[in-house]
Task: inverse folding
């Protein structure tokens, strides 16, 4: 069958795909919900589950936002959480690996410096849903994860207790901490809780794909629907499972170097060598470069690599399939409506980190 013929047949089948069961990597998926027009089950995103000891409040969320953009957490007084996780760059930074303290230049390509991170900065979109944080899964809560960049010399490089002591001397922060934590002073624990509460608000759930599965057939073009079907045909939903388009799996994509054992560094299990956490594909077009080492410069490069690993029994996937799958990820899964607002100033009085120029798409 020619490519054109196959395209026409697939498009005709898309209307009936809700009744199909997609088999991915040898495992049967449940049949889609009645009325679901995607080639997999999807009942929509549930609410983020908050820890009992850290419910999100507006005061806590706003405090976390200010801390996220404040260089007071770094040793060089210029670097903040937002330096590596910017809303301009898909809550990442546009670099293969990040440049932390003592870096030069705004966030994004072109930033240079002596302190580079070991791995690519993962996006923070929908991070509140994750059970395992970091590429190797070494943290299991946002509260546990939040202070790791401070403790890491090449990232923010500051002792959390020292940072808390300074923040306690800043009247505007002291007032905000007291309001957010029932009169408590800044401590490493309350700093972590505020940052975690803020990060739980970074939710992407209003993409064209979401409107499509909710019943708006016109939310996706025919080509994008075809790309969605080819994404399913390739078995991608086994790891990138809707509605989050990620999973808690750790997989080996053939990219690990000798100096990075991935998940095995946490589990001490040789079988986990080279395995890294499956990232979300929500807003993926904004958060390149891709993979744990940033080795795929573009989304097309990343899809091309993934398609090259599709088992032969699933069929042949060519350059046109790569293009269609890339289009689905690009056009269907992008939603930046809940991206955080960068403050013009922060309570420490230090300069808010700047971003490089990016052409909107």
Result:
């Amino acid at each position: 069958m020619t490519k054109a013929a196959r395209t026409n047949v697939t498009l005709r089948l898309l209307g009936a795909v809700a009744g199909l069961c997609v088999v991915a990597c040898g495992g049967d998926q449940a049949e889609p919900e009645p009325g679901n027009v995607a080639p997999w089950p999807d009942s929509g995103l549930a609410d983020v589950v908050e820890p009992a000891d850290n419910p999100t409040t507006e005061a806590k969320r706003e405090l976390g936002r200010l801390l996220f953009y404040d260089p007071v957490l770094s040793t060089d007084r210029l670097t903040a959480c937002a330096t590596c996780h910017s809303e301009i760059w898909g809550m990442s930074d546009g670099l293969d690996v990040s440049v932390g303290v003592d870096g030069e230049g705004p966030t994004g390509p072109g930033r240079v410096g002596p302190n580079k991170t070991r791995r690519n900065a993962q996006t923070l979109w929908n991070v509140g849903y994750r059970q395992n944080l970091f590429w190797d899964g070494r943290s299991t809560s946002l509260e546990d994860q939040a202070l790791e960049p401070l403790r890491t010399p090449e990232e923010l490089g500051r002792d959390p207790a020292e940072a808390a002591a300074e923040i306690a001397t800043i009247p505007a922060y002291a007032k905000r901490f007291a309001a957010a934590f029932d009169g408590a002073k800044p401590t490493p624990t309350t700093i972590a809780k505020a940052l975690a509460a803020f990060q739980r608000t970074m939710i992407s759930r209003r993409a064209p794909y979401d409107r499509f599965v909710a019943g708006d057939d016109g939310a996706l073009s025919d080509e994008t629907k075809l790309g969605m079907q080819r994404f399913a045909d390739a078995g991608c939903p086994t790891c990138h499972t809707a509605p989050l388009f990620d999973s808690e799996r750790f997989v080996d994509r053939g990219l690990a170097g000798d100096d990075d054992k991935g998940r095995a560094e946490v589990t001490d299990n040789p079988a986990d060598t080279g395995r890294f956490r499956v990232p979300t594909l929500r807003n993926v077009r904004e958060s390149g470069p891709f993979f744990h080492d940033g080795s795929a410069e573009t989304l097309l490069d990343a899809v091309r690599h993934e398609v090259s690993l599709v088992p032969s029994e699933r069929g042949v996937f060519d350059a046109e399939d790569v293009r269609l799958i890339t289009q689905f990820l690009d056009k269907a899964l992008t939603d930046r409506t809940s991206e955080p607002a960068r403050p013009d100033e922060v309570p420490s009085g230090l300069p808010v980190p700047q971003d490089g120029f990016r052409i909107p798409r």
User: Anything to note?
Assistant: Residues 319-332 form the longest helix (14 residues). The mean pLDDT is 90.
